[in-house]
Amino acid sequence: MRAAPINPADLNQIEGKYPVRFPLPATPGFEGAGVVVDAGGNGTTIPAGTLVILPHNLGTWREAVAVKASELVAVPPEIDPVHAALLKINPMTAWRLLHDYVDLKKGDWLIQNAANSAAGRAVTQIARELGHKTVNVIRRAELIDELRSEGGDVVLVDSEKLRDEVKSATNGAPIPLGLNAVGGESALRLANCLAPGSTLVTFGAMSLQPLKIPNGLLIFKGLRFRGIWINKWYDSASKEERMEAFRPLFEMAKRGLLKTKVEKAYPLTEAKAAVAHAAQGKRSGKIIFEFE
Ligand SMILES: NC(=O)c1ccc[n+]([C@@H]2O[C@H](COP(=O)([O-])OP(=O)(O)OC[C@H]3O[C@@H](n4cnc5c(N)ncnc54)[C@H](OP(=O)(O)O)[C@@H]3O)[C@@H](O)[C@H]2O)c1
Q1: Ligand 1 centroid from CA 85, angstroms
Q2: pLDDT in tens, 23-54
Q3: How far is C-alpha 228 from the chain's CA centre?
Q4: How many CB atoms neighbour CB 108 within 10 A?
Q5: Same domain, 183 and 119
Q6: Of the four, 81, 94, 164, 239, which is 20 to 30 A from 233 by CA?
Q7: Position 264 in a domain
Q8: Beta carbons of 197 and 222 less than 8 angstroms apart
Q9: Coil, strand, or helix at residue 11?
Protein backbone atom coordinates (compact mmCIF):
# COMPACT_ATOMS: atom_id res chain seq x y z
CA MET A 1 0.00 0.00 0.00
CA ARG A 2 1.12 3.57 -0.63
CA ALA A 3 -1.74 5.74 0.66
CA ALA A 4 -5.25 5.39 2.10
CA PRO A 5 -7.56 8.13 3.43
CA ILE A 6 -9.79 8.17 6.48
CA ASN A 7 -13.19 9.08 5.07
CA PRO A 8 -16.44 9.72 7.00
CA ALA A 9 -17.70 6.31 5.85
CA ASP A 10 -14.67 4.64 7.47
CA LEU A 11 -15.49 6.33 10.78
CA ASN A 12 -19.15 5.34 10.44
CA GLN A 13 -18.11 1.77 9.78
CA ILE A 14 -15.83 1.63 12.83
CA GLU A 15 -18.70 3.05 14.91
CA GLY A 16 -20.97 0.29 13.63
CA LYS A 17 -23.20 2.85 11.85
CA TYR A 18 -22.54 1.64 8.32
CA PRO A 19 -24.42 -1.06 6.45
CA VAL A 20 -21.20 -2.99 5.74
CA ARG A 21 -19.94 -4.96 8.73
CA PHE A 22 -16.95 -7.20 8.14
CA PRO A 23 -16.59 -10.13 10.56
CA LEU A 24 -14.11 -9.20 13.32
CA PRO A 25 -11.17 -8.94 13.50
CA ALA A 26 -11.40 -6.67 10.46
CA THR A 27 -9.29 -4.07 8.66
CA PRO A 28 -11.00 -0.73 7.96
CA GLY A 29 -10.50 1.49 4.91
CA PHE A 30 -12.73 1.71 1.83
CA GLU A 31 -10.19 3.22 -0.56
CA GLY A 32 -6.50 3.47 -1.24
CA ALA A 33 -3.71 2.94 -3.74
CA GLY A 34 -0.71 0.66 -3.79
CA VAL A 35 1.97 -0.71 -6.05
CA VAL A 36 1.91 -4.26 -7.39
CA VAL A 37 4.97 -6.05 -5.98
CA ASP A 38 4.29 -9.52 -7.31
CA ALA A 39 1.92 -10.58 -10.03
CA GLY A 40 1.45 -14.29 -9.55
CA GLY A 41 -1.01 -16.76 -11.00
CA ASN A 42 -2.34 -16.98 -14.50
CA GLY A 43 -3.76 -14.42 -16.83
CA THR A 44 -2.82 -11.28 -14.88
CA THR A 45 -2.61 -8.13 -16.94
CA ILE A 46 -1.10 -5.80 -14.35
CA PRO A 47 2.71 -6.04 -14.14
CA ALA A 48 4.73 -5.54 -10.95
CA GLY A 49 5.55 -1.89 -10.34
CA THR A 50 2.15 -0.59 -11.49
CA LEU A 51 0.33 1.87 -9.23
CA VAL A 52 -3.21 0.57 -8.69
CA ILE A 53 -6.44 1.61 -7.00
CA LEU A 54 -7.86 -1.07 -4.70
CA PRO A 55 -11.43 -2.37 -4.46
CA HIS A 56 -13.59 -1.12 -1.59
CA ASN A 57 -14.24 -4.38 0.22
CA LEU A 58 -10.89 -5.59 1.54
CA GLY A 59 -9.72 -2.97 4.08
CA THR A 60 -7.04 -0.57 2.85
CA TRP A 61 -5.48 0.46 6.19
CA ARG A 62 -2.77 -2.15 5.91
CA GLU A 63 0.74 -2.40 4.55
CA ALA A 64 0.12 -5.13 2.02
CA VAL A 65 -2.67 -7.26 0.67
CA ALA A 66 -3.16 -10.02 -1.89
CA VAL A 67 -5.92 -9.11 -4.32
CA LYS A 68 -7.21 -10.41 -7.63
CA ALA A 69 -5.74 -8.49 -10.58
CA SER A 70 -9.20 -8.22 -12.12
CA GLU A 71 -10.36 -6.09 -9.17
CA LEU A 72 -7.55 -3.54 -9.49
CA VAL A 73 -7.59 -0.36 -11.53
CA ALA A 74 -4.21 0.53 -13.04
CA VAL A 75 -3.35 4.22 -12.64
CA PRO A 76 -1.61 6.21 -15.40
CA PRO A 77 2.03 6.99 -14.47
CA GLU A 78 1.45 10.78 -14.42
CA ILE A 79 -0.70 10.45 -11.27
CA ASP A 80 1.00 10.15 -7.87
CA PRO A 81 -0.05 7.63 -5.20
CA VAL A 82 -1.78 10.08 -2.83
CA HIS A 83 -3.73 11.65 -5.68
CA ALA A 84 -4.72 8.17 -6.92
CA ALA A 85 -5.67 6.92 -3.45
CA LEU A 86 -8.46 9.51 -3.22
CA LEU A 87 -10.04 9.21 -6.67
CA LYS A 88 -12.24 6.20 -6.17
CA ILE A 89 -14.85 7.40 -3.69
CA ASN A 90 -15.38 11.17 -3.83
CA PRO A 91 -14.49 12.07 -7.43
CA MET A 92 -16.34 9.00 -8.75
CA THR A 93 -19.39 9.85 -6.61
CA ALA A 94 -19.23 13.41 -7.92
CA TRP A 95 -19.09 12.12 -11.50
CA ARG A 96 -22.10 9.86 -10.97
CA LEU A 97 -24.05 12.63 -9.18
CA LEU A 98 -23.61 14.85 -12.23
CA HIS A 99 -24.51 12.14 -14.77
CA ASP A 100 -27.05 9.70 -13.35
CA TYR A 101 -29.93 11.81 -12.02
CA VAL A 102 -30.71 14.89 -14.11
CA ASP A 103 -29.94 15.53 -17.76
CA LEU A 104 -27.96 18.71 -17.14
CA LYS A 105 -27.16 20.90 -20.12
CA LYS A 106 -24.27 23.30 -20.47
CA GLY A 107 -25.01 26.42 -18.44
CA ASP A 108 -27.46 24.64 -16.09
CA TRP A 109 -27.11 25.30 -12.37
CA LEU A 110 -26.80 22.89 -9.49
CA ILE A 111 -26.59 23.53 -5.75
CA GLN A 112 -24.68 21.55 -3.10
CA ASN A 113 -23.98 21.76 0.63
CA ALA A 114 -20.71 20.79 2.39
CA ALA A 115 -19.15 22.26 -0.75
CA ASN A 116 -15.70 22.39 0.84
CA SER A 117 -15.69 18.63 1.44
CA ALA A 118 -13.61 16.38 -0.80
CA ALA A 119 -16.79 15.31 -2.58
CA GLY A 120 -18.01 18.90 -2.89
CA ARG A 121 -14.75 20.15 -4.40
CA ALA A 122 -14.82 17.28 -6.90
CA VAL A 123 -18.40 18.23 -7.83
CA THR A 124 -17.34 21.84 -8.42
CA GLN A 125 -14.40 20.86 -10.61
CA ILE A 126 -16.28 18.27 -12.67
CA ALA A 127 -19.28 20.57 -13.08
CA ARG A 128 -16.96 23.25 -14.43
CA GLU A 129 -15.44 20.79 -16.90
CA LEU A 130 -18.92 19.88 -18.09
CA GLY A 131 -20.01 23.51 -18.40
CA HIS A 132 -22.47 23.53 -15.48
CA LYS A 133 -22.69 26.28 -12.89
CA THR A 134 -22.49 25.64 -9.16
CA VAL A 135 -23.96 27.20 -6.05
CA ASN A 136 -21.66 26.03 -3.26
CA VAL A 137 -23.05 26.16 0.27
CA ILE A 138 -20.64 25.97 3.22
CA ARG A 139 -20.76 26.67 6.94
CA ARG A 140 -17.51 28.69 7.24
CA ALA A 141 -17.23 32.14 5.64
CA GLU A 142 -13.42 31.99 5.62
CA LEU A 143 -13.56 29.45 2.77
CA ILE A 144 -15.49 31.63 0.32
CA ASP A 145 -12.49 33.02 -1.59
CA GLU A 146 -10.76 29.63 -1.73
CA LEU A 147 -13.79 27.88 -3.21
CA ARG A 148 -14.35 30.68 -5.70
CA SER A 149 -10.73 30.42 -6.81
CA GLU A 150 -11.26 26.68 -7.36
CA GLY A 151 -14.10 27.41 -9.78
CA GLY A 152 -17.22 27.72 -7.62
CA ASP A 153 -19.53 30.16 -9.45
CA VAL A 154 -21.43 31.15 -6.31
CA VAL A 155 -20.28 30.40 -2.76
CA LEU A 156 -22.64 31.12 0.14
CA VAL A 157 -22.70 30.46 3.86
CA ASP A 158 -25.69 28.33 4.89
CA SER A 159 -28.39 30.33 6.71
CA GLU A 160 -32.12 30.97 6.85
CA LYS A 161 -31.58 33.54 4.08
CA LEU A 162 -30.17 30.96 1.66
CA ARG A 163 -33.08 30.89 -0.77
CA ASP A 164 -33.09 34.70 -1.23
CA GLU A 165 -29.31 34.84 -1.52
CA VAL A 166 -29.28 32.07 -4.14
CA LYS A 167 -32.02 33.79 -6.11
CA SER A 168 -30.14 37.04 -6.22
CA ALA A 169 -26.74 35.42 -7.00
CA THR A 170 -28.15 33.38 -9.89
CA ASN A 171 -30.56 36.05 -11.18
CA GLY A 172 -33.39 33.66 -10.38
CA ALA A 173 -32.15 30.95 -12.79
CA PRO A 174 -33.90 27.59 -12.27
CA ILE A 175 -31.79 25.02 -10.39
CA PRO A 176 -32.71 21.47 -11.46
CA LEU A 177 -30.28 19.50 -9.23
CA GLY A 178 -29.40 19.65 -5.54
CA LEU A 179 -26.69 17.53 -3.91
CA ASN A 180 -27.03 16.91 -0.20
CA ALA A 181 -24.20 15.62 2.01
CA VAL A 182 -25.46 17.13 5.28
CA GLY A 183 -29.13 16.23 5.89
CA GLY A 184 -31.46 17.92 8.38
CA GLU A 185 -32.27 21.62 7.97
CA SER A 186 -29.45 22.16 5.50
CA ALA A 187 -30.96 19.62 3.09
CA LEU A 188 -34.33 21.31 3.38
CA ARG A 189 -32.81 24.71 2.62
CA LEU A 190 -31.26 23.22 -0.54
CA ALA A 191 -34.60 21.68 -1.56
CA ASN A 192 -36.25 25.07 -1.13
CA CYS A 193 -33.82 26.55 -3.68
CA LEU A 194 -34.76 24.03 -6.39
CA ALA A 195 -37.09 24.61 -9.33
CA PRO A 196 -40.37 22.65 -9.54
CA GLY A 197 -39.83 19.06 -10.72
CA SER A 198 -36.15 19.09 -9.68
CA THR A 199 -34.16 16.38 -7.93
CA LEU A 200 -32.33 16.40 -4.62
CA VAL A 201 -29.79 13.59 -4.38
CA THR A 202 -28.64 12.70 -0.88
CA PHE A 203 -25.26 11.03 -0.53
CA GLY A 204 -24.10 12.00 2.96
CA ALA A 205 -25.52 12.86 6.38
CA MET A 206 -22.73 14.83 8.05
CA SER A 207 -25.14 16.53 10.50
CA LEU A 208 -26.52 13.08 11.47
CA GLN A 209 -29.96 14.72 11.25
CA PRO A 210 -32.79 13.09 9.29
CA LEU A 211 -34.26 14.69 6.21
CA LYS A 212 -37.80 15.87 7.01
CA ILE A 213 -39.56 16.66 3.76
CA PRO A 214 -42.55 19.05 3.97
CA ASN A 215 -45.53 17.60 2.10
CA GLY A 216 -45.77 20.71 -0.09
CA LEU A 217 -42.37 20.07 -1.69
CA LEU A 218 -43.77 16.79 -2.98
CA ILE A 219 -47.35 17.85 -3.75
CA PHE A 220 -46.98 21.37 -5.14
CA LYS A 221 -43.35 21.43 -6.28
CA GLY A 222 -43.08 17.81 -7.47
CA LEU A 223 -39.52 17.47 -6.17
CA ARG A 224 -37.82 14.09 -6.43
CA PHE A 225 -35.67 12.80 -3.60
CA ARG A 226 -33.03 10.25 -4.55
CA GLY A 227 -29.93 8.73 -2.97
CA ILE A 228 -26.65 7.23 -4.10
CA TRP A 229 -24.23 4.77 -2.52
CA ILE A 230 -21.09 4.51 -4.60
CA ASN A 231 -20.17 1.09 -3.13
CA LYS A 232 -23.32 -0.27 -4.69
CA TRP A 233 -22.44 1.29 -8.03
CA TYR A 234 -19.03 -0.41 -7.92
CA ASP A 235 -20.61 -3.73 -6.97
CA SER A 236 -22.99 -3.67 -9.91
CA ALA A 237 -20.67 -2.12 -12.54
CA SER A 238 -18.78 -4.42 -14.89
CA LYS A 239 -14.99 -4.15 -15.13
CA GLU A 240 -15.43 -2.32 -18.45
CA GLU A 241 -17.91 0.14 -16.92
CA ARG A 242 -15.52 0.84 -14.05
CA MET A 243 -12.61 1.43 -16.43
CA GLU A 244 -14.78 3.63 -18.64
CA ALA A 245 -15.83 5.70 -15.63
CA PHE A 246 -12.25 6.15 -14.40
CA ARG A 247 -11.04 7.40 -17.81
CA PRO A 248 -12.35 11.00 -17.51
CA LEU A 249 -11.27 11.16 -13.87
CA PHE A 250 -7.74 10.13 -14.85
CA GLU A 251 -7.73 12.68 -17.67
CA MET A 252 -8.65 15.42 -15.20
CA ALA A 253 -6.16 14.13 -12.62
CA LYS A 254 -3.35 14.22 -15.19
CA ARG A 255 -4.08 17.95 -15.55
CA GLY A 256 -3.72 18.40 -11.78
CA LEU A 257 -7.47 18.44 -11.09
CA LEU A 258 -9.40 16.31 -8.57
CA LYS A 259 -6.46 16.50 -6.18
CA THR A 260 -8.01 16.09 -2.75
CA LYS A 261 -6.50 18.41 -0.17
CA VAL A 262 -4.66 16.63 2.65
CA GLU A 263 -4.38 18.17 6.13
CA LYS A 264 -2.04 15.52 7.55
CA ALA A 265 -0.54 12.16 6.65
CA TYR A 266 0.06 9.65 9.44
CA PRO A 267 1.95 6.37 9.55
CA LEU A 268 -0.19 3.33 10.32
CA THR A 269 1.50 3.04 13.74
CA GLU A 270 -0.36 6.24 14.72
CA ALA A 271 -3.77 4.98 13.62
CA LYS A 272 -5.52 6.00 16.85
CA ALA A 273 -4.38 9.64 16.61
CA ALA A 274 -5.15 9.67 12.90
CA VAL A 275 -8.72 8.46 13.42
CA ALA A 276 -9.31 11.00 16.23
CA HIS A 277 -7.97 13.75 13.95
CA ALA A 278 -10.17 12.66 11.04
CA ALA A 279 -13.26 12.78 13.27
CA GLN A 280 -12.76 16.52 13.87
CA GLY A 281 -14.76 19.05 11.84
CA LYS A 282 -13.38 22.22 10.22
CA ARG A 283 -10.33 20.50 8.75
CA SER A 284 -8.40 22.00 5.83
CA GLY A 285 -8.31 18.61 4.10
CA LYS A 286 -8.26 14.85 4.51
CA ILE A 287 -6.39 12.81 7.07
CA ILE A 288 -4.60 9.98 5.32
CA PHE A 289 -2.27 7.10 5.98
CA GLU A 290 0.93 7.05 3.98
CA PHE A 291 3.04 3.91 3.85
CA GLU A 292 6.73 3.51 3.19
N1 LIG B 1 -23.09 7.89 -0.68
C2 LIG B 1 -21.86 7.71 -1.13
O3 LIG B 1 -21.59 6.78 -1.88
C4 LIG B 1 -20.82 8.68 -0.72
C5 LIG B 1 -19.64 8.83 -1.46
C6 LIG B 1 -18.74 9.81 -1.10
C7 LIG B 1 -18.98 10.59 0.03
N8 LIG B 1 -20.11 10.37 0.76
C9 LIG B 1 -20.45 11.18 1.93
O10 LIG B 1 -20.31 12.55 1.60
C11 LIG B 1 -20.00 13.28 2.77
C12 LIG B 1 -18.74 14.09 2.51
O13 LIG B 1 -17.65 13.18 2.39
P14 LIG B 1 -16.17 13.72 2.15
O15 LIG B 1 -15.23 12.59 2.20
O16 LIG B 1 -16.17 14.61 0.97
O17 LIG B 1 -16.01 14.62 3.48
P18 LIG B 1 -14.77 15.45 4.04
O19 LIG B 1 -13.87 15.87 2.94
O20 LIG B 1 -14.19 14.67 5.16
O21 LIG B 1 -15.49 16.77 4.61
C22 LIG B 1 -16.51 16.70 5.56
C23 LIG B 1 -17.51 17.81 5.24
O24 LIG B 1 -18.63 17.73 6.10
C25 LIG B 1 -18.87 19.00 6.70
N26 LIG B 1 -19.47 18.79 8.01
C27 LIG B 1 -18.97 18.07 9.02
N28 LIG B 1 -19.84 18.05 10.05
C29 LIG B 1 -20.90 18.79 9.66
C30 LIG B 1 -22.12 19.17 10.28
N31 LIG B 1 -22.43 18.76 11.52
N32 LIG B 1 -22.98 19.93 9.59
C33 LIG B 1 -22.68 20.35 8.34
N34 LIG B 1 -21.54 20.02 7.69
C35 LIG B 1 -20.66 19.25 8.35
C36 LIG B 1 -17.50 19.62 6.78
O37 LIG B 1 -17.60 21.01 6.95
P38 LIG B 1 -16.44 21.78 7.80
O39 LIG B 1 -15.20 21.70 6.96
O40 LIG B 1 -16.97 23.16 7.95
O41 LIG B 1 -16.27 21.02 9.09
C42 LIG B 1 -16.94 19.22 5.42
O43 LIG B 1 -17.47 20.04 4.42
C44 LIG B 1 -19.85 12.25 3.89
O45 LIG B 1 -21.08 12.14 4.57
C46 LIG B 1 -19.57 10.95 3.13
O47 LIG B 1 -19.93 9.79 3.85
C48 LIG B 1 -21.02 9.44 0.40
Answers
A1: 18
A2: 899 999 999 999 999 988 766 679 999 999 99
A3: 11
A4: 18
A5: yes
A6: 81
A7: yes
A8: yes
A9: helix
Band of the pLDDT at 200, cuts 50, 70, 90? Answer: very high
Q: Decide if 198 contacts 220 (C-beta within 8 A).
A: no
Atom of ligand 1 nearest to the CA of 228: 1
- Looking at the fold, whether 258 and 182 belong to one and the same domain comes out as no
Residue 189, pLDDT score? 98
Contacts of residue 236, Cβ cutoff 8 Å, sequence gap at least 6:
none
Tell which one of 139, 180, 261 to mutate to probe ligand 1, the residue whose CB is within 8 A of the most ligand atoms.
139
Alpha-carbon span 54 to 74, nearest angstrom: 9
Say if residue 177's pLDDT is above 90.
yes
Residue 292's pLDDT is 81
**CA 8 to ligand 1 centroid distance, Å:** 7
Same domain, 120 and 220: yes
Task: Answer whether residue 96 is part of any domain.
Answer: no
Whether 186 maps to a domain, the answer reads yes
What is the domain count for the chain?
2
State pLDDT tens for residues 110-160: 999 999 999 999 999 999 999 999 999 999 999 999 999 999 999 999 999
Q: Are residues 10 and 81 in the same domain?
A: yes
Q: What is the pTM of this model?
A: 0.97
Q: What is the mean pLDDT of the chain?
A: 96
Supply the pLDDT for residue 39. Answer: 87
Q: Residue 184 CA: which ligand 1 atom is closest?
A: 32
Residue 218 falls inside a structural domain: yes
Q: Is 266 labeled as catalytic in the residue annotation?
A: no
Amino acid at 191: A
Distance 40 CA to ligand 1 centre (A): 39
> Which residue's alpha carbon is at the smallest distance from atom 30 of ligand 1?
207
